[in-house]
Design a protein that fits this description.
Strand order of the largest sheet: 1-3-2
Largest sheet: 3 strands, antiparallel
Number of helices: 3
Helix content: 25-40%
Shape: flat
Structural class: alpha+beta
Amino acid sequence: MARASRSAHQSRTLPEGWEESSDEWEYVPLRLPPGVTRVTATMRLSIHAEFGGWELSRVRAYTDGSRRVLLRRRKTTPLLSPTPEAVM
């Protein structure tokens, strides 16, 4: 039980030096488990890039075969919905 909570905590924290906040960018950390092949990891990250607009910011590979990935994309301004008066 303690091991599960420790690994959950470790997966939420980023390696030292990885920034996760910026006025210009939004970030999302990913963890790829040890069993994921290089080809599968490439496909997963390509899907995030193509359909989500994410780009690769950082990757860290560990000796157990797992990888930590940080994706980023430019922040967009939310589209303003028209006011009810403008619709009429």
